[in-house]
Fold this protein.
Amino acid sequence: MKKLCIPVFLLAGLVFGLAACTSSDAPSNEAVAAPPAGAGTSGGTGSGEVPPAPSLGQAPDFALPTLSGDSLRLSDLRGQIVVLNFWATWCAPCIEEIPDLIALHDELNPHGLSVVGISLDVEGAELVKPFTDRLGITYPIPLDDDGAVAEAFGGVWALPTTYVIDPEGRIDQRVVGLFPVEEMRVQFRQQLGLPPVSTTAP
């Protein structure tokens, strides 16, 4: 099956174009959760519909095996900002944003932010580990090969989908498509009590 990525449009007064892969882009043995029947949208219609995020309360807790052989439990990251990124190796926009996510994690992890990349590849570690080694990913990669955690978050209809979870474990934001790392870095540094990054030469 041809892996063709299409723009996903969310209408919320204004139209935002977000590059994302949908379930139709996945290889035939991959699955990305479809929106639940009757799900509401952010104003879009037809093929551009996106199911709503879980209510902005506590993020569902989970424990998943990681590529390092450990188990990652979301509640163990309480007290940190968590950038929870659902992705897959076959998703071109996911791969495009990985270097920016690595840079964000490396910069802000010592100050209280963790990027977590949940792989939805059904082949699991056998496929994902060589891929992440090649890209030099430094943040943890839990394996959700049966899609149970994606389903707990309301179903992941398009990839990448990223949730920002606050230090109290509440869902703060959901981004479908490329994560705006440069814009969010400003917000994160402010939340973490860090000075803004200077853009002027010394």
About this structure: The two ends are 51 Å apart (CA to CA). The longest strand covers residues 14-22. DSSP finds four helices and nine strands in the chain.
